Fold this protein.
Amino acid sequence: MALSFARKTAMAAVAVAALGGVSFAASASEAASGRTVHPASGRQAVHHPASAPASVAAERSAPAHRQEPQVVTQVIGRGRVDGHRWSVALEFHRTLPKGYTPPKLPDGSTTRGTSLLCQRMYIGGVRIDRQGGPWSDCRTVSGTQDPGAAGGLGLWSLHDKGLSGTRLMVSTPEANVAYGIVTLADGTHVKATTVTVPGTAYRAWAAPIPNGKTITTVDQYDTHGNRLTHDTYWR
């Protein structure tokens, strides 16, 4: 859009101000792992008003700074297994929360990190490892891009350290892992898609393991279907 101003006198110049539109595009998606075999799971132009004439000192105010949330929670997977609702979420604290004390290492020092990443897992509405207090299954990380948070894989349950009962397999994979497939001894395949916490590099996938089922393999793949890892030691 452009505006022009007519000459008032013979000595006046024509002032022209032009301002284009700015377009924004946004998208959001939420993925959740599903049951056997199946995965769980505009553009808008904003036109600003024309600027003031050149003869007038136009004052532009800077856009307000959006304050980043101190805690971001992202659901990784959820559903039903063995008649119970289950869910897994990653909870990122931008700064170490009040009341949290970093655990001590064998040499007496404490773990380093300015932020906290928690893995919140529920079966039948009960949080796994709740006996350890509000910060169980949490670890310190350095900001939003700590590479040390990737590479974990484990089985979790409400008792027996993930060895029996209804269980959850949770992976915090490397960035190139798009999904995981857990194969059970009865031939069932449970596929789970990797989900990332917005604004961070922290990601995970989660798959439910029914009571009494035995795991034969756990495989992880990239977006092209190439197998990246192959584990056979889980039961």
DSSP finds no helices and 17 strands in the chain. The longest strand covers residues 71-81.
